[in-house]
Amino acid sequence: MTPARRRTLFERLKRANPSPTTELRYSTPFELLVAVILSAQSTDRGVNKATEKLFAVANTPEQIRALGLRGLKRYVKTIGLYNTKAANIFETCRILIDQHGGEVPRTRETLEGLPGVGRKTANVILNTAFGHPTIAVDTHIFRVANRTGLAPGRNVREVEEGLLLAVPARYRQDAHHWLILHGRYVCIARRPHCGRCLIYDLCEYADKVRYKRDTKDQTASSSRNRTEPRRSRRPHARGTRG
Ligand code: SF4
């Protein structure tokens, strides 16, 4: 993708959403750190439901240690892999208290030394809590970067390095959130909504024409269905998720 097209792409994403941010709810860097550790392979909505109750009673490393590991697990047990995630958070709290004065560290190396914190989580914290222009490549960003031709790569590290070169400097701070949201709601994994994609003309995905037709068919069919009487749903129908 040419530099001019990349600039246009981000200009459009910016115009549509001038101040993008994470959908995880947090009010301090520590809350964000806990939420991001919990969010691996889980939905932001599920994490927010759990952390809303957790942070009301414990939102500092000291308070979470005071809950005890079993107490912490009670708040996060609705989240996948909660045993491991709770153990990581509990140990992270101990390290923050013993080595960092109870604060979330601001360097990549120190962040990545915490249990449950890998490169992606460190990038999210550096970007969202501390304003660094990092790009955390998750499954959504990986897909969008490859499909659009913005920064093709065989693995997340290649895509991250490609994006850091490809994204114009003035958009780098927010690129992470624009691309995640685009992948989560428009350029979804199965049957992307190419027909309502605001960067359709810039995108280099070979199948976009087919999916644009699909989007139109879905739109037409859903407006037809609105004029038809509702039928009762089969109780255990499967395979209906797009
Ligand atoms: S045109 Fe389709 S494939 Fe390309 S970015 Fe938009 S939704 Fe994704």
Largest sheet: none
**What is the overall number of helices?**
11
Structural class of the secondary structure composition?
mainly alpha
Overall geometry comes to elongated
As a whole number of angstroms, the C-alpha radius of gyration is 21 Å
How would you describe the overall organization of this protein?
- It is a single chain.
- The chain has helices at about 5-15, 30-40, 45-55, 60-75, 80-100, 110, 120-130, 140-150, 155-165, 170-185, 210-225.
- It has a domain at about 30-130: Hypothetical protein, domain 2 (Endonuclease III, domain 1, Orthogonal Bundle).
- It has 11 helices and no strands.
- The chain starts with a helix and ends in a 16-residue tail after the last helix.
- Helix 8 packs across helix 10.
- By secondary structure, the chain is mainly α.
- The site of iron/sulfur cluster has 14 residues, from helix 8 and helix 11.
Structure described in brief:
The protein is 60% helix and 0% strand. With 242 residues, the protein is mainly alpha-helical. The chain is elongated.
List the keywords.
242 residues, mainly alpha, 11 helices, 60% helix, disordered C terminus, binds iron/sulfur cluster
Secondary-structure map with pairings?
Blueprint (H helix, E strand, L loop, with lengths): L2 H14 L12 H11 L4 H14 L3 H16 L5 H19 L7 H5 L6 H11 L9 H10 L7 H11 L5 H14 L22 H19 L16
Helix pairs in contact: 2-3, 2-7, 3-4, 4-5, 8-9, 8-10
